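Help wanted!
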Amino acid sequence: MPNVKAYSAASATSPLASATIERREPTDNDVAIDIDFCGICHSDLHYARNEWADVMETVYPCVPGHEIIGRVTAVGSSVSKFKEGDLVGVGCLVDSDRTCPNCQEGLENYCPNFTLTYGSPDPHLGGVTLGGYSEGIVVDQDFVLSIPENLDPAGTAPLLCAGITTYSPLRHWNVGEGMKVGVVGLGGLGHMGVKFAHAFGAHVVVFTTSPGKKDDAMRLGADEVIVSTDPDDMGKHIGTFDFILDCVSADHDINAYVMQLKRDGNLTLVGAPEKPMGVAAFPLIFGRRSLSGSAIGGIAETQEMLDFCGKHNITSDVEVIPIDKINEAYERMLRSDVKYRFSIDMGSLKS
Ligand code: NAP
Ligand code: ZN
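Answered by r_m:
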């Protein structure tokens, strides 16, 4: 599939617009995929607008998109894991060095030489990798996931990033029955965090700046909802949480959430705001609380998460949009007006 239609941004300030991009001919180990749906992650917006320039300067023109679901159209001669017609997924990773200690442990997400689905140097075509806002993609079979056929594909696409990014830290910190768990920010990641923490048996409390999301939070699996802009509400739970997952995309007071933890409780950041946050020492010191981070998940754990979702019938709550609504979707995401993930119907790009 040499040339495919896509949506790309030409600069940090230009809207996404229709473009044609090149894909490589599948090598022996490659799988060619016709994309059906691609979720819109807030990371796509951070990247398209070069908000992470300090860590990862955006190379333009850029094509975001790393929540990809589609059908296999061709496989290379050495591909054993997939065949034409299979329903497959691709997340944030398309390769890694496979030799470092992290890769050896199945943690390709912490490989210092990983290749991201977009924005990494492309060893095949030069330039940088281009993501899933496109008709098709070619990916090494070891970075392609099997999708349970019982799940709705539009709602399954976001599992490839929002799903694994919340599943992985909840598993790492052994979230389960008898634990009180907070999820901060009810967006794409946050609503998946609520679904998983609930499925793992925890008592789930949502912290939201949007009072209008209260009923949805309860429907998604929360046991309680705290409106974080209300100081009385925030005061009631101080010192009571075993674990908090912070899924917020913008600047906010992290210390207010560290205070909510019990002794030895942990707050894990998955949200990646543009600017550094001020962390106060005392809320951490008093109570031996800890603050950590987590990045997506490895390939094996992503497959485990997808199989778990297939078994428990878990998908993302999505608003399906045609690709020409993407710039509007970005603006709505910035206003926290997403219920709770946009999923692009790629048929709209083909027609
Ligand atoms: P999203 O759908 O836009 O959700 C973010 C939520 O944060 C909003 O819905 C809102 O929830 C809350 N929020 C927004 N602005 C806020 C503010 N100023 N103060 C307090 N709360 C605010 O974004 P997403 O796709 O879930 O992504 C969230 C973050 O995770 C992004 O920074 C993204 O880049 C990052 N991310 C990280 C990884 C990783 O591997 N670590 C992977 C994917 C994404 P309420 O309305 O409920 O307050
Ligand atoms: Zn993402």
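OP: Thanks! One thing I noticed: Residues 41, 43, 66, 92, 161 surround zinc ion (ligand 2) (CB under 6 Å).
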